[in-house]
Design goal:
The protein is an all-beta fold. It is built from no helices and 23 strands. The strands form six sheets. It has a four-stranded antiparallel β-sheet, with no helix packed on it. It is globular and about 50 Å long.
């Protein structure tokens, strides 16, 4: 979403551009041959990744495809787009970095062993989380892997969400934990969340952070953990973390 414009991708292989105030569909983008999995929009161009293994760049106003980026040989699951670079993650285990203007593939980032479930890009630094339980830190200008967040304290199941800043990386997982890492050294710092049901079905689906609080969307695949939001406050001092709220939901699963 950008300003009052939202772009959606669908299993019907189309993308639609919506005015969120009126609910009107302004534009229809047709060109993918399978379900559209991920979409990015910067207010000028739309970028989409789909199960047809393609990444497409669109001019939404003219409803034209500017580039069709080929190279992945399996489904595209995740995207990042900063106006200059497009980064795509695929079930083929690779991450590709593209020039958004020319459509040229600049780098192929290899090292994960499964699909890239989530990524975040800031300037030249990309952090990727994977179904193989690993988190990697990359420099997209060189294509180099700077760190792999691994070791005895690594996640034991798929990474579900990640956040980072200039000092830290925070990751959540199917294993029921939220972990904090040093972005420069790759060192594990501590577990912020460790569900009692972790390893037996408890999952931290998503995390969101502001300057002092962390919100975790928690649930399970088998009923071992109540579906809820857990809120932590980091402003209590003495480097302690205080859980300040636990909000249950009536649904069986938090969608993401």
């Amino acid at each position: 979403m950008y300003n009052q414009i939202c772009v959606s991708g669908s299993r019907d292989a189309t993308l639609r551009v919506w005015d969120v105030q009126t609910g009107e569909c302004k534009h229809l983008l047709i060109g993918h041959m399978a379900a559209v999995r991920c979409v990015q929009y910067d207010g000028v161009r739309v970028v989409s990744g789909a199960y047809d293994c393609l990444v497409k760049v669109w001019d939404p106003v003219s409803e034209t495809c500017l580039h069709s980026l080929t190279g992945h040989n399996n489904r595209v699951y995740s995207l990042q787009f900063d106006g200059r670079h497009i980064v795509s993650g695929s079930l083929d285990t690779t991450i590709r970095v593209w020039d958004a203007v020319t459509g040229t593939c600049l780098h192929v980032l290899s090292g994960h062993r499964s699909l890239t479930s989530g990524m975040e890009l800031r300037d030249n630094i990309l952090v990727s989380g994977n179904a193989d339980s690993l988190v990697k830190i990359w420099d997209i200008t060189t294509g180099a892997c700077l760190q792999t967040l691994d070791g005895p304290s690594k996640h034991q199941s798929a990474v579900t969400c990640l956040l980072f800043n200039s000092k830290y990386v925070m990751t959540s997982s199917d294993d029921g934990t939220v972990k904090l890492w040093d972005i420069k050294t790759g060192d594990f710092i501590r577990d912020i969340v460790k569900l009692d049901s972790g390893g037996s079905g408890g999952v931290v689906w998503r995390i969101q952070l502001d300057k002092t609080r962390l919100v975790c969307a928690v649930g399970s695949r088998n009923g071992t953990e109540e579906t809820k939001l857990i809120v932590f406050d980091f402003s209590v001092g003495n480097e302690k973390t205080k859980q300040i709220a636990s909000c249950s939901t009536s649904s069986n699963e938090i969608m993401y």
